[in-house]
Specification:
With 94 residues, the protein is α+β, with helices and mostly antiparallel strands. The protein is 54% helix and 16% strand. It has a three-stranded mixed beta sheet with strand order 1-2-3. A hairpin with a 2-residue loop joins strand 2 and strand 3. The termini are far apart. The relative contact order is 0.09.
Length: 94
């Protein structure tokens, strides 16, 4: 669980808060009117969070690519149903 501190108090104790995060392994949430504003986390924690975010983004991209590759081509009746009147016939087209 993170240690919460009001922004006015955090301003006065910033050096101490940084030491608690870096050397004590704590996470500090700075609040205003009881609502979280920012969090102080170690650089190592931030790096792990960014790696998790990149991994999640890669998974989404892979999933979307897989759906696109496995989607069947629309049938002729679907093209007519959706108002697609012309088809590409290639360079020499007939």
């Amino acid at each position: 669980m993170a240690y919460e501190i009001p922004v006015t108090q955090a301003r006065a104790e910033l050096a101490d808060l940084i030491n608690r995060v870096v050397y004590g392994g704590e996470r500090v949430v700075v609040t205003r009117h009881g609502k979280p504003l920012v969090a102080l986390v170690s650089a190592a924690d931030l790096e792990r969070l960014e790696e998790l975010q990149e991994s999640a983004e890669d998974q989404v991209i892979t999933s979307v690519a897989g759906v696109h590759e496995s989607a069947p081509a629309p049938a002729a009746h679907d093209r007519r149903r959706f108002g697609i009147a012309a088809e590409h016939r290639g360079a020499g087209g007939a």
